[in-house]
Every structure is written in C-alpha cells, then in structure tokens.
Amino acid sequence: MKISLVHTRNILLLFLGFLTFQSCTKSAPEIPDREQKPEPEKVPDATKASNYVYSSERQLEFSLYQNDALKSSFGQNEQEKNFKNRPRYFRPQTIIFKEDSLFISKLGGYTESYKIKWEKEKLFIYGDQARDWKHFASKNDKDELLLNIVLYNSQIKSENSNALRTGQLYNPLSINEILSEKSRANMTTIWLKIETIYVAENKKP
C-alpha cells in the first residue's frame, strides 16, 4: 500500500511537470520565417540621355591678326582655301547629355566626353588640364544649343626659325587664348569663328 502511494505521487508530479512545459511552450510568441517587405516604388529612369544633333551654322568672323591686332577680313568663299575640310571634322555631329556628363561624336568616328554643369542657360565643361570650368555653349529660348568653334592657322617668326601652327578651340573668348609672351610680337594668325547650332533629336524636321 505504501509503494502504491509513492508511485501515485510520482505519476502526479510527472503529469504536473508536463502541463507546465506545455503552458510555457504555448505562451512563446510565434516568429514568422520571413518578413513581408513592401514592393519598392518605381523610380523614374534618370539615365535616359537627351541627344542634340547638328542643324546649321553661320560664320561669325574670318580675320587676319598680327598678334592680337585685327589687320583684315576674308570672304566666306576663302574658307575652303585656308582650312580645307577641317571645320566639318572639328564641329560635333551629335551632343549627348547623360546625367552630369556630355558625349560628343564627330565625323570619322572621333568622340570626346566631359563632366558638365549648367548655370541657367550656360553650359560649362570641366577641363582636366586647366582643372577648371569653361563656358562651352548656351541654350536659347527655342531649346537650341549654340556652340562657337574656332579654327586657326598661325605663323610664328623669329630670327632663327619660321614655324607654322594650326589648331581649333571651343568657344574661346578672344585670340589671346592662343598667344604666349614668346610669340606675341611675331605671330600672324588666320582666325575663323563659326557658330554651330544643334537641335533636340526628336525636334529635328
């Protein structure tokens, strides 16, 4: 009879322990395997490029300089005689804007790229050599891009030599950009300045 009571007590203790374990297990919060995250909002595509294509041009200046002094002017029919097809190959054919960069393509497959910034209607490019911003082009009220290009042929004379130099520039302020102190007294330059006009590709007739 005594053994029976001991067994009965042990069984009751085991039963109470089992109930306590079950109660603790049920009270623990259920943690989902994976949280449901909201779908991300669609962001507008900021990488779309805007393309401008060559439309037309007009001659702004075609002159002969002695150093920085204007000596005479040329007629437009003398452009090919002095510069051959250089204007066609130097002027951009397409100008593409993408985020903070500008990409230029020219005849012959030549390409250039620059970092850019806008100040109202004025477009600036960053020159790696000068490490500074340079005014490159401007927009008018028709959303046209206006870019001045210059081509030049220079003859530099000294006591011991007679050197020829050719070059081209984007939007120079004046002929002083190609003059140096050494050449200033002995330099003769034929200077051709052209305004090139670009329109948005989707607006070209």
TrEMBL record:
Residues 1-28 form the signal peptide. Keywords: Signal. This is Lipoprotein. It comes from Sphingobacterium thalpophilum.
